[in-house]
C-alpha cells in the first residue's frame, strides 16, 4: 500500500538517495561547520581541542544537602493513564506538523505507540482541513481503467480505515488532447453527491482538481446488482422473492429521495446500483442526472450515435423509457420508474426484459410486449420526433392474464389464449413473462405492470410503488388458498383498470416518508393544485421540490434572507455586468444548474 504521488513528475530523481551503510568508508567523520571567527591555533592545540570535544567529561551529580521527611514525600510517579494521555497529546501535537508521507513512511513503522497515534482518528481529523484528498488515502489495488471514467483505485482512508473508491480522471486523455476543460459530467456528479445525503446513496468524501487531473473519492461498495442477480439463480423461488422485495424497497426509497430533491437519475442499470457488505442498496453514477425545472422546460435531446454502440452503451439502452427513445422534449421522474420495472423483471427471471441492440429494435421489443401506443392511449406520442405512423401495430400482453396462466392451476384456457396471441415472433417474450409471474406472484406482477406502462400518465411513481401490496404485505408462497390484497384480487380478475378507482385499498398515504427530510415534507394532507400536468409529476412532489429550492436559497443567502445578498460595488460597469450575466446563463445551461442557483448568481 502506498500514497498516490501526483508530484513525482517535478521531483529530482536523485533526491532522497543515500549511500548504503555497507558501502561507506570507515573512519570518515561527518563534516563540521567552519567557524571563521575563531583564532588560528597551532596543530598541537587544535588536536587537544578536538580530543576535548570528542570526549567531554560530564560533571558528577551533586546531591542536595536538604533533608526531606519520608512521610512528607509524595509517592514516586507510576505509569498511569494520565501520563499516557499527556504523552499521546504531545505526539498528536508533534505529528500534526508532519506531512502525510512522513507519517505513513517514517513515523508509523517506528514503534507500536507511534503507529497507533499516526493512524488515530484524532490526528487525521485535525489534518484533513489542510491536506489534499489524495494525501489522506492509501492505495490498496487498482480496480479498472477507462478513458471516460478514468482510473479507479480501491483505497483505505487514513484515520478511519474505511474502504473508499478513488476516481482519477486525466483531463488530457478524456478530452482527446483538446483544451475542453473539466467534463461537465464530473462537475455535475461532484456537485450533486456533495448535497445528497441518504443511506441508500453512495457517500461522497470529496473532490478536487490537481493540475491536469481531477479526483473524486466516494464510498467503496463490494458488488453491483449484476453480481447479485447471478447469486439469485442459486435460491429457491420464495427466497428469491424475499430478497427481491427487500432490495427493491431500498432502491425505491433512495430513488424517491432523489426525485423529491428535484433530480432525475436517467441511467439506472445493474452496473450503477450497488450493495455494501451489510447488503444495503446504494445508488451511484450521477453523471447523467438532470435537474427538474419548475415550470417544465424542453430538454436538450440526446444526439444519436454516429458509431456502433459499445456493449456498455447497449446495456444502458435496455433500461431506457420509450419517451426517451422517441425524443420527447418534456418528461419527468417516471423515466426512472421504467428502468426500475425492467430491473424488477430481470431480477425475477435472470434475463433482461428488453435485450435490444439498437434504438429501433428497443422500441419494437417494447411494442411487442406492452403494445404499440395509439392516439387514444397516448395522445402526445404523435408529436414526438422519432414516432412514425408506420410503426407495426401490436397488442400488448395482459400481465393479469399472464399471472392467471402462471399461478392458477385451472387456467389452461388462459395459456392457450396467450399462445395464440404470441404466435411465432413473441413466444420467447411470453415464456419470459410466465417465468417472471412464477417468481413474483400476483402482487409482484401488479407492481410490475404499473412500472412498465408505456404512457407515462399511467406509470406509477416511487411513492405509489412503495405503497403497493407487494411492498406493504408480507410475501408468501403462492397457492390457490393464498389470501390476496383486495386491489390484487380486483386486478387479477380484470375488474380493476386503475388503482385510483379504490384509493382506500392502499390505506392512508404516508404523511412523512422515511427517505425525505422533515423540511421537505410538511404536515399537510392536501397539497394545493399546481399548473403542471400530473402525468409528469404529482403536486406533492412539486411543492416538496419548491421547498427544497427555497431552503437551499436561504442557506446560501444566510440568516438574513434575500436582504443579505451582496450588492454591486460602486462604479461597477453595467455593460460588464450584462456580459457576466450572459456568461452565467450559458454556464448554467451547460452544467444543468438549478434555477435558484442561477437567480442567486445573477443577483
Automatic annotation (TrEMBL):
Cite the SUPFAM superfamilies for this sequence: F-box domain, Protein kinase-like (PK-like)
**Superkingdom classification of source:** Eukaryota
Q: Which keywords annotate this record?
A: ATP-binding, Nucleotide-binding
InterPro entries annotated for this entry? CDK (IPR050108), F-box-like_dom_sf (IPR036047), F-box_dom (IPR001810), Kinase-like_dom_sf (IPR011009), Prot_kinase_dom (IPR000719)
| Protein's UniProt keywords contain Cell wall biogenesis/degradation | no
Where is region (Disordered) located?
1-24, 500-519
**Single GO MF descriptor:** protein serine/threonine kinase activity
Q: Where is the Protein kinase domain?
A: 138-471
Q: Does the keyword Metal-binding apply?
A: no
Q: Which GO terms describe its cellular component?
A: nucleus
Quaternary data: May form a complex composed of at least the catalytic subunit CRK2 and a cyclin.
Q: Know the name of this protein?
A: Cyclin-dependent kinase 2 homolog
